[in-house]
Amino acid sequence: MHDAPAIHPSCSPERQTVPDHSPFIIRYMNPSSSTITPDASPVEYTDDNIRHLSDMEHVRTRPGMYIGRLGDGKLPEDGIYVLLKEVIDNSIDEFKMNAGDRIEIDVEDNLRVSVRDYGRGIPQGKLVEAVSVLNTGGKYDSKAFKKSVGLNGVGVKAVNALSSHFEVKSYRDGRVRELTFGKGNIQNDRTAKSSDESGTYIYFEPDNTLFKNYSFHDDIVEEILRNYTYLNTGLTIMYNGRRILSRHGLKDLLTDNMTVDPLYPIVHMKGEDIEIAFTHTNQYGEEYYSFVNGQHTTQGGTHQTAFKEHIARTIKEFFGKYEYGDIRNGLVAAIAVNVEEPVFESQTKIKLGSTQMAPDGESINKYVGDFIKTNVDNYLHIHKEDFTDILENKIKETERERKAMAGVTKLARERAKKANLHNRKLRDCRVHYCDVKNNRKEESSIFITEGDSASGSITKSRDVNTQAVFSLRGKPLNSFGLTKKVVYENEEFNLLQAALDIEDGLDSLRYNKVIVATDADVDGMHIRLLIITFFLQFFPELIKKGHVYVLQTPLFRVRNRRTKIKDKQVIVDADAHRAKNEKKNDFITRYCYSEEERLAAISDLGPEPEITRFKGLGEISPDEFAHFIGPDMRLEQVTLHKNDQVSKLLEYYMGKNTMERQNFIIDNLVIEEDLPEEEGE
């Protein structure tokens, strides 16, 4: 494949990333297709072409319209978590209306979910409509549900349609009505007496024909549930028998999620329909958590924009000086608002589009601004000793650093402009994460490689549409303890920042996955650490938002001729997993990522298979490399947990070579011996 040009003007929604004449499209079109043959007879367009789909059919045919993406559960954005949230949202709405302060959630075998709340229970006469007829709900008049998330009458119906099995029970007035569905089709309807508490029970099992190989991940589910409790103090969630609750709301959220120490105690304020919490840290950049009616708006929206603007303005007016950027650097904050009839920019509700707090009400910008102006300004005047002085010192430090590197920054930006035209370290792709309208934007990734040989193999075998390559020149600089000035002074770091387009935050991030691809040896591990240190130091949000990965590459190749393999089922299975255009080979090959996998491959492919140990990525041919960066690519996500104290971790691993670290290395040193190969290997 030809390399895509390295030109990348700033991303915009209007930009067409793959033109109609793209050679990639032409190459992969089916030449036999009648749609591109000039002489093909025209397709008849008659009444028979007009189809009406039932509500449930439409959801199943176009799931992306309702839940965003399908996925398999490895990412928090995957559809199975949207299904879970749609069900819980209804229970949260009951809590907000002072009906039930306990929700019980059980996930069975990481596949099936049950949710029981103790609210008012769905009115039984309309239960069928409430769970299976689109645009039906009790939240349109805003009286029974003043500030709910689920306004559009879609949520739980989508869950029903996309589940192989769905049950709902409404406990109300001493009776229970129970419905059972399969893929949205009603199967059972019965009503009986019941002494159970009022409320609603919903059980669902996502359809595995849509959600391929899905699994609910415990850590992702727990984070979702914790967010609900942070925003609803007094609510208890029982999750697989474990109790989750929050006593201090957003203050608890920041405490649990911060990976660096705050410079001053977290400031926490609550109003009628607003709650904020914030502090500053010594980390670079800004970090925000925003919510609307209990919904985590991971991409922000009008409420987050208003908070950023007014917190900076209020602090600036208090001191009478300083720039907004200096004030917000190191800011870690959370905001939650309750809005009547909120409008989100997509069905997945991750970005608020509403401009008003209520229909014909005041603007969100003014409401948030007035609250911050009054309360934060008062706080600044009252807590001068333990808060204001520390804050001002932090702002001054940021200002000094910015001014010190002003000249360097200017030169670097000029260099970055040239890099936009030709970044010699970058082999770009066509589709980018910031291409809002491109349906493949989630697939966009960049491989950060070590040396020319490795980058050459990846470049030749990559998908030129969605996979970019950035080539390092040996080991990058150890950036631990250095200021952000190094990002602009060090050409390699500056070009990497330009390639990712993250100088001013992640809003313009060009790749969804930033993949560190190095050899699995000592030098390769060191390079991984140096790159991750760079991100932790200057762009921690890149890691916190789950964009950074490490590529797992095979250690061994085990292969044998078809004719020598005793177990013929191994050959059948291997042929079944061949890629579309892959020809039948004389050899059956297994790529092994561990010693255990190597031994298993020897057992399956014996007797006397050929074993090759890969010492580096450069040894792997482009044809082989295509297997490791394709659909079955093995990635290990770099994560930060609340217990990970970044500064202490970096100090230990990347700081000066202390006696403590030397002793640790000596105590944990593993010596590999070259033992004679076992007979049969």
Structural class: alpha+beta
CATH topology value of the largest domain: Heat Shock Protein 90
Number of domains: 3
The level of helicity is: 25-40%
Terminal CA distance reads 38 Å
Multimerization status: single chain
CATH class of the largest domain: Alpha Beta
Poorly predicted sequence stretches spanning 5 or more consecutive residues: 1-9, 12-39, 677-681
- Please state the average pLDDT score: 81
**Number of helical segments with 4 or more residues:** 23
> How large is the radius of gyration?
28 Å
Structure notes:
- With 681 residues, this protein is an alpha+beta fold.
- The protein folds into 3 domains: 65-244, Heat Shock Protein 90; 250-403, Ribosomal Protein S5, domain 2; 406-552 and 637-667, Rossmann fold, CATH 3.40.50.670.
- It has an 8-stranded mixed sheet with strand order 5-4-3-6-2-1-7-8. Strands 14-16-15-17-18-22 form a 6-stranded mixed sheet.
- A hairpin with a 2-residue loop joins strand 4 and strand 5 (185-193).
- Helix 13 (406-421) packs across helix 16.
- The longest helix has 21 residues, at 384-404.
- The chain starts with 22 loop residues before the first helix and ends in a 14-residue tail after the last helix.
- Mean pLDDT is 81; it is low at 1-9, 12-39 and 677-681.
